[in-house]
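stuck on whats below:

***
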Amino acid sequence: MSRFNISRPILIIIVVILIASIGFMHLTGNVALKGEPKQLVVVKAGMTTDELTEVLFSENLITSPLAFRIQARALRLGDKLKVGEYEIKPGMSNSKIIKMLKEGRVRFLVLTIPEGYTVEQIATKIEKEGFGKAEEIKKLAKDYAPYPYMQTNNPDVIYKAEGFLYPSTYHISFGISESDILRLLVNEFDEQLTPAIRMAITAQNMTIRDAVNMAAMVEKEAVFADEKPLIAGVFRKRLAIGMPIQSDTTIQYILGTQKPEITIADTKIESPYNTYLHQGMPPGPIASPSISTIEAVLNATDTELLYFVADLEGRHHFTKTYEEHLQEIDRIHGPQ
């Protein structure tokens, strides 16, 4: 009986041809899977490429685990996968899936922080939208002050991060931690604080914290942007003559809720943040102002006006004397 001998080089060539054939069939695409909607694949911390391959196969996103592993090794995907959610469309080629994983092109979620939000409002929104726990955000915000201008020794400050969580729209990846969210928001504030704005603050003998402190009150008071410089001018005039700021926004901050109308009893609540009872600025910012509101403070109107009252549309009416102020209140809201 004769024996059919195959030399080692020929055997290697045959194996290579077989692998190439598999590659041609499987590495270039998963054609049979086309036409289905995109699916979310979650890469968890510590997940290996082999584990991910099994997930992709179980979700019918690849047709051959072996083929996928071969190309993943050839393209040096490795096991250092970026944690997150990946949107993969059935029918995508293995090479495109691997490229997406190598580049860490995770699906981003959108988090919008409105102007004038407090730490507690931000924390509630983060939890409601599934980005993290409100209590953890508040716990971290108490002493979170990575930039020197955020730091303060005032024991009455509730949250050192208050005022510095910049209001904007953020694209956040899956699995981000509460501390990472805070870092993202304060880093954005620091980016918005341009050298020109920093110089303007210094030129007016203010600290960044002071500018943000006043801007936070202006942000909460103003409905219309064109009124911000004048509201800031009234606050600065009151400070200059030693008159209490008497901003309802600080009372709202103490109450922790947005009351339709502040009462006389509310203005007598004992708190360092009560600008009716205490002269000067509150211990710290009461909300996160936009950079445009900080600029309004820096460009405050030079005015002799000391009072303002809002009408039903949110427009403010400014007066110089208390008697005129009372008349405006009666005119707008009826006799008190």
About this structure: Residues 8-26 form the longest helix (19 residues).
